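Here we describe the complex-level prediction in full. Unlike the single-chain runs in Section 2.1, the two entities below were treated as one system.
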Amino acid sequence: MHIFEGFLPGPWWQIWFAISIPVIFFGMYRMNKLISERRELLPLLAVAGAFIFVLSSLKLPSVTGSSSHPTGTGMAAILFGPAITAVLGTIVLLYQSLFLAHGGFTTLGANVASMGIIGPVVAYVIYKAGMKANMNFYVVVFLATAFADWATYVVTSIQLALAFPAEVGGSMASFQAFAAIFATTQVPLAIMEGALTALVFKYIVQVKSDALVELKVITAETVEKLRGVVA
Amino acid sequence: MKGELIFGALALLFIASFFYGMALNPGSEFGGADGAAEDVIAEVNPDYEPWIGNLGFEPPGGETESLLFALQAAIGAVVIGYFFGYYRGKGQSQQ
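The structure predicted for the assembly as a whole is:
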């Protein structure tokens, strides 16, 4: 779910652009640096981007009779950090607003902020904290991804609520109305997304664990431990 | 194997919840949650009109929209499959 074209009145869409643009530029700088210094990681970057592409195209039906889709940004956030993820997210959002009338150009700033920046930041923080607490790698991946998904929709609700405060109760009441819609569809979706991302990380550990070590996602010892479990 | 099993069980639960939802809301069209959000906007601020129309290409119908969504998923899936296969093959030839 992204906010549609024209559904954010001024000054809100400008404000969200002002927040998103510096992050995107910083992410482009980081991405350029990564590609020029570590060319061999380019395929993994492509996979992370493709993962967002696939997951955000899956409109899944839910219990309540509506549909929504996962975001897929958790994986890129864990591998490359939030700034680079913001760039990948922007590419996907551009595709969807260009060809699918899904989201929009004027609301791009707000959509990048929720899906490309704040969700990935949440994933990154949870991931780092979980690894520090010495939790199981796959459990941490699951938690980070699921919470990134939820955070995206919480932020979307906040963005809509700020722009459309209810006459009675103001923004808080609107926030509850928007969040109620997304909560029911997004809770099971985020759990699915977390499980899928953990599964994909299992394959990355199997086929390309040296990249994970190089990106300082996990240490060589953790790889040894995880492989021991898998084998 | 364990990861795949957990994911498979969750996927089954998810599908089951979908059928349960279908039984609960027989008339539902399973429209997007974003559409529901639009309804809330209409409720909170009935006078609000989107200040700008759609700027990109608008799919001329549900079928074309499905095509473009499928295309998006296919592009992503090809990239993922290609590079995982590449890594796997490279790993095997090094052994």
